[in-house]
Automatic annotation (TrEMBL):
Family: Belongs to the FHIP family.
Organism of this sequence: Equus caballus
UniProt-recorded name of the protein: FHF complex subunit HOOK interacting protein 2A
Positions of the UniProt region annotated as Disordered: 514-535
PANTHER family reported in the protein's UniProt record: FHF COMPLEX SUBUNIT HOOK INTERACTING PROTEIN 2A, RAI16 PROTEIN-RELATED
Domain FHF complex subunit HOOK-interacting protein C-terminal: from-to ranges: 606-698
């Protein structure tokens, strides 16, 4: 009896709601809002009183009599005035409060789809808040049941055919793909959905989607000229319109809705999203416009230090900011939108992510950023490189990072030759900027490369360094004689030179080396599986060699407490552990490629990147302190990589270099030789060196300018760099020797 009463009351609410069709009074002056609330309350109560999944008579009445279609018609006509807002609220509450799946019913998803088209048509309307709430609840429902998205991929084959479209479309194709919009008046059950979505869509998704997105080239053609597949994705289009809302809260909500939609795993939806909507254009065009709105010149320090930006929290008040600078508002807006693009691609379904990232690559990186990076104005180069550096630091999506790496470095993986170093113009220009006449540009570009090397992408190190070391043709192969052993008693590789007998090192004090007893106490113990003499140069020889490179009279750290070699061990251990975690999935070999299998006859070229770094390192005594710090920082980053060829080339002083080849160690040896000659010409060298070190550490106040200040600062950086290399060598040996 109670159910009958509710049913009658429900019908009465529906009838009274519809009876006011011709009423011109505002909807708020009628009983419609209260009737709609009563209808909803009855439906919710009915569901709560029934078993899960069972449809009650009131819900059956709503579905069978197409009540939602009627309400949509009233909302579209906005009759009575304000009705659209009431309909949006009712739809939102209905989808949000009813637990049973409603969207599979044709008399639900069809009016929902029609109502979606009304959203975002005009910006800043009184119903904008209700529109975004409605769209977001639909997105949330699709996130719960992703297969339902197929109901929202509308076909437009018929309209194309009626307009004389050039596509030849068979009658069977029309029937198959138009099955979604055929009004059967029946509920579509989940098991029927795959058929409703159309066989052609499924086959395209399985067979063509990956290849089409891999080969996708996004161009900046006018919208009318862009060839679109025969589907509409109005849910996305409405959200895209609302992202342009002047109300920031509405725009953020629309972005959240798009974030939900791109993450749906349905291949057909991913294809439609990237090829049938303007999502790619919206992301890239807004990136471009925000980038172009930046001032021509921004202080690189401001770009680097501006607070971390999250796309949903882009709120900034110039008046309340004590650290404001010209262009800060524009910079935060650009970084905020780039963060949104990055997060969107990170969350997106795989093929959608690839298409979106390619669009950013083609339309923004190449179309907007590259011309700025390739310009000749020093001020422009500095600003654009600082922005690139900030973007490199900020990116977290693997797919977008891949596109960024290809943009900066190119896709080449074959060994470099000196004649072809400009094959990828941007890569060549950026590496050349590491040795620019402007120290500011050099430092900023080096910092960009340093952060790039910390990104989890194998192509970065391979393109910059590894591809030139694969064949180990920097070494001179000497076949081992039968009477020789792999490692002689003093720990040297057969045929290697004992650098401690070199004239450069004859005056080294024993106090500056690690004794065998000290070494045994700090290094890992030998085990049957990990013997000390395992074919590698004994690491204590390498450590002592680096520690002894700088002669005693050029050292100043032992006069200042807390600046010993051991201070670098902790940092080296932490950094090496981080690099190992990044490189673990790249499956690098544990030992160098056998020389017998290497093409040692091929001419060796260290590559453009290492060439510039080695050239810079060779001028360490004549360069500003800040430049030297950045050059050695990049080289130490490279030395940390756990690849055997990188380790051998950068950290093994005893490698037999082929004729005409240089390594990091040989470059440092030449610098030390030059230093020992120049020391003799400087009066009171040691006291001046100690004073400069104390000033750099803040232990002494600034005073009169000291002669040869650049050389003295260079010597200090050189000493610290050698200690850092020794610490890295020790940590890497310890890690490789630990079972």
């Amino acid at each position: 009896m109670e159910m009958i009463i509710k049913y009658v009351a429900y019908q009465d609410c529906v009838v009274q709601t519809i009876e006011v069709l011709n009423d011109k009074a505002p909807v708020t002056d009628t009983n419609i809002p209260s009737h709609l609330d009563q209808m909803l309350d009855i439906l919710v109560q009915e569901e709560n009183e029934r078993e899960s999944g069972e449809t009650g008579p009131c819900m059956e009445y709503l579905l069978h009599h197409k009540i939602l279609e009627t309400l949509y018609t009233l909302g579209k006509a906005d009759c009575p005035p304000g009705m659209k807002q009431q309909v949006l609220v009712f739809y939102t509450k209905l989808l949000g409060r009813i637990r049973q799946p409603l969207l599979p019913h044709i008399n639900v998803h069809r009016p929902v789809q029609k109502l979606i088209r009304l959203c975002g048509e005009v910006l800043a309307t009184p119903t904008e808040n209700e529109e975004i709430q409605f769209l977001c609840i639909v997105c949330a429902k699709l996130k719960q049941d992703p297969y339902l998205v197929n109901f929202f991929l509308e076909n437009k084959l018929k309209s194309l055919a009626s307009k004389g479209a050039p596509n030849v479309i068979s009658e069977d194709t029309l029937k198959g793909q138009d099955s979604l919009s055929t009004d059967t008046g029946q509920s579509c059950q989940p098991e029927e959905l795959s058929g409703a979505a159309g066989m052609e869509q499924t086959e395209l998704a399985d067979d063509d989607l990956s290849s089409s997105l891999d080969n996708l080239t996004v161009t900046s053609l006018p919208e009318a000229a862009v060839v679109r597949p025969n589907q509409d994705y109005n849910l996305v289009n409405s959200l895209l319109n609302l992202t342009r809302s002047p109300d920031g809260r509405i725009a953020v909500k629309a972005c959240e809705g798009l974030m939900l939609l791109v993450s749906l795993p349905e291949p057909a939806a991913a294809k439609c999203l990237t090829q049938s909507t303007c999502l790619c254009e919206l992301l890239t065009d807004r990136l471009a416009s925000l980038y172009k709105a930046l001032p021509q010149s921004v202080d690189p320090l401001d770009i680097e230090t501006v607070e971390a930006v999250n796309w949903g929290l882009d709120s900034y008040s110039h008046k309340e900011d004590a650290s404001a600078f010209p262009g800060k508002r524009a910079l935060i807006s650009f970084l905020s939108w780039f963060d949104y693009c990055d997060q969107l691609i990170k969350e997106a379904q795989k093929t959608a992510a690839v298409a979106l990232a390619k669009a950013v690559h083609e339309r923004f990186f190449i179309g907007v950023m590259e011309p700025q990076l390739m310009q000749t104005s020093e001020l422009g180069i500095l600003t654009s490189t600082a922005l690139l550096h900030r973007v490199v630091r900020q990116v977290t999506s693997d797919v977008l990072l891949q596109e960024m790496v290809f943009f900066i470095l190119g896709e080449q993986r074959e060994p470099e030759t000196l004649a072809e170093i400009s094959r990828h113009p941007l890569r060549h220009r950026l590496i050349e900027h590491c040795d620019h006449i402007s120290d500011e540009i050099s430092i900023m570009t080096l910092r960009m490369f340093e952060h790039l090397l910390q990104k989890p992408n194998e192509h970065i190190l391979y393109n910059l360094v590894l591809r030139n070391l694969e064949e180990r043709n920097y070494t001179e192969y000497k076949p081992v004689c039968p009477e020789d052993k792999d490692v002689v008693e003093n720990g040297l590789i057969a045929g290697a030179v004992d650098l401690e007998e070199d004239p450069l090192f004859t005056d080294i004090s024993p106090d500056n080396t690690l004794s065998n007893q000290e070494w045994l106490g700090s290094s890992p113990p030998a085990t049957p599986d990990h013997p000390k003499n395992d074919g590698k140069t004994e690491v204590h020889k390498i450590v002592n060699t680096f520690l002894c490179l700088v002669p005693d009279e050029a050292k100043s750290s032992y006069h200042v407490e807390g600046t010993g070699y051991d201070t670098y061990l902790r940092d080296a251990h932490r950094q090496f552990r981080d690099y190992c975690a990044i490189c673990l999935r790249w499956e690098w070999p544990g030992s160098p490629k056998a020389l017998e299998k290497c093409n040692l006859e091929a001419a060796f070229f260290e590559g453009h990147f290492l060439k510039v770094l080695f050239d810079r390192m060779g001028r360490i005594l004549d360069q500003p302190y800040d430049v030297n710090l950045q050059v050695t920082s990049v080289l130490s980053r490279l030395s940390l990589f756990p690849h055997p060829h990188v380790h051998e080339y950068l950290l093994d002083p005893y490698v037999n270099l082929a004729s005409g080849c240089r390594s990091l160690f040989s470059v440092i040896v030449r610098v030390v030789g030059d230093l020992m000659v120049r020391i003799q010409r400087i009066q009171d060298f040691t006291p001046k060196l100690l004073l400069v070190r104390k000033r750099l550490l803040g232990l002494e106040p600034e005073g009169p300018i000291i002669d040869h200040i650049t050389l003295l600062e260079g010597v200090i950086v050189l000493e610290e760099f050698c200690k850092e290399l020794a610490a890295i060598a020790f940590v890497k040996y310890h890690a490789s020797s630990t079972p």
